[in-house]
Specification:
- The structure is a single chain.
- The chain is an alpha/beta fold.
- The protein folds into two domains: about 1-100 and about 265-353, Isopropylmalate Dehydrogenase (3-Layer(aba) Sandwich), CATH 3.40.718; about 115-255, Isopropylmalate Dehydrogenase (3-Layer(aba) Sandwich).
- Helices cover about 40% and strands about 20% of the residues.
- The chain is built from eleven helices and twelve strands.
- Strands 2-1-3-12-11-4-5-10-8-9 form a ten-stranded mixed beta sheet, sandwiched between helices.
- Helix 5 (about 165-180) crosses helix 6 and helix 10 (about 315-330) crosses helix 11 (about 340-350).
- The longest helix has 18 residues, at about 315-330.
- It binds nicotinamide-adenine-dinucleotide, 3-isopropylmalic acid and manganese (II) ion.
- Manganese (II) ion binds near residues 247 and 251.
- 3-isopropylmalic acid binds near residues 76, 90, 91, 247 and 281.
- Keywords: Amino-acid biosynthesis, Branched-chain amino acid biosynthesis, Cytoplasm, Leucine biosynthesis, Magnesium, Manganese, Metal-binding, NAD, Oxidoreductase.
Length: about 350
């Protein structure tokens, strides 16, 4: 593209620190591509809520829609009631912009330490991607509470699974599996207990499989999936799962693939009816915010996904290669942990040369 318009929502906690490095690397990677990058910063998150009580006004959502893509840092703050920003800003963006594919790759880069026992990956590779449904499940807010605070309180959060919503994300996952060498798709659910939703997911996978005959499928209950993620994660190629299971297994996937500081994601609208949003899997990390202790690599790898999404494949590859080179040498560093900006500088410098 001649111009790339990016809506930037740095957000809370470590969000601004990691987004600064993401943008630094993005500018380095795009230089010479003949693409002008135009960023618009949106002041959304805890500060905005404290100042005005707003989380995501309609006018701002409309302005965000005018961009090609969104880069987001993190949302959530201990000084704001839990859920206000998460629901009112982050999930609102995912739902309103129809980010039905929440793409979360897990890959163990050479040189990166993993908590897995050494024999687990002997002769094998950890390289899979979770296609997490992004617009349904227990996240839709279909619940309520009565008799709150009494011994008779009843609280519900009903998981919504529509044939339309399940089918479109399953088809996307099959498409991704078909494009990968191993062509394997694992459905992760819990149909032994959550039978209504589980059987819809299972029937949908069976039906869509007919369109992708060269993709092999299997199934794991989510609890068993967490076992295999620790004992044999190389068995996974593409995982498709619902919104909540996907949230949980992708933090585990991040942990085995070198830590939450490396885990990237894309909230993708495959139909391109609205901008997709790229963000690290991690949150605002209040425990280390403002100290330049956060690892910006997850955001930088999210920038690579962003660049690929807009068709800047070479720029995306430059970012990924620079990250891989930086990761390969980390353990050999002098032992002093680098600051957030130092890591961003080092990765940008590898691109700029
Ligand atoms: P978290 O991911 O913010 O932090 C979990 C742990 O990981 C913390 O110890 C933190 O210091 C560490 N960590 C996270 N990112 C790191 C990085 N880049 N480098 C080094 N260490 C890192 O999860 P949490 O503590 O459960 O949530 C904190 C807040 O963030 C909450 O308000 C939560 O709702 C919100 N949250 C937002 C998002 C998002 O914006 N997408 C994702 C998860 C959590
Ligand atoms: C994530 C986060 C969010 C989620 C929260 C903050 C709403 O945990 O992006 O993984 O559950 O999707
Ligand atoms: Mn999460």
């Amino acid at each position: 593209p001649a111009a790339l318009k990016i809506a930037v929502i740095a957000g809370d906690g470590i969000g601004p620190e990691v987004v600064a490095e993401g943008l630094k690397v993005l500018h380095a990677a795009v230089a010479g591509e003949g693409t002008t990058v135009e960023t618009t910063e949106f002041d959304l998150g805890a500060n905005r809520w404290h100042a005005t009580g707003e989380t995501l006004p309609e006018s701002e959502l409309a302005a965000i829609r005018q961009h090609d893509v969104i880069l987001l840092g993190a949302v959530g703050d201990p000084g704001v009631p839990s859920g206000v920003l998460e629901r009112g800003l982050l999930l609102k963006l995912r739902f309103e912009l129809d980010h039905y594919v929440n793409l979360r790759p897990a890959r163990l880069y050479p040189g990166v330490a993993t908590p897995l026992a050494p024999h687990v990956l002997e002769g094998k590779e950890l390289d899979f991607v979770v296609v997490r449904e992004g617009t349904e499940g227990p996240y839709v807010g279909n619940g309520g509470a009565i008799r709150v605070g009494t011994p008779h309180e009843i609280a519900t959060e009903v998981s919504i699974n529509t044939a339309f919503g399940v089918e479109r994300v399953v088809r996307d996952a099959f498409t991704r599996a078909a494009a990968r060498p191993r062509k394997k798709l694992t459905l992760v659910h819990k149909h032994n207990v959550l039978s209504n939703a589980g059987h819809l997911w299972r029937r949908t996978v069976e039906a869509v499989n007919a369109e992708f005959p060269d993709v092999t499928t299997d199934y794991l209950h989510v609890d068993a999936a967490t076992i295999f993620m620790v004992t044999d994660p190389a068995r996974f190629d593409v995982i498709v799962t619902d919104n909540l299971f996907g949230d949980i297994v992708t933090d585990l996937a991040a942990a085995i693939a070198g830590g939450i500081g490396l885990a990237a994601s894309g909230n993708v609208n495959p139909d391109r009816t609205a901008p997709s949003m790229f963000e690290p899997v991690h949150g605002s990390a209040p425990d280390i915010a403002g100290q330049q202790k956060a690892d910006p690599t997850a955001t930088i790898l999210s920038v690579a996904m962003l660049l690929e999404h807009v068709g800047l494949d070479k720029a995306a590859a430059r970012v990924e290669q620079a990250v891989a080179a930086d990761l390969a040498e980390r353990q050999g560093a002098d032992g002093r942990p680098r600051s957030t900006a130092e890591i961003g500088d080092a990765i940008a410098a590898r691109i700029t040369g």
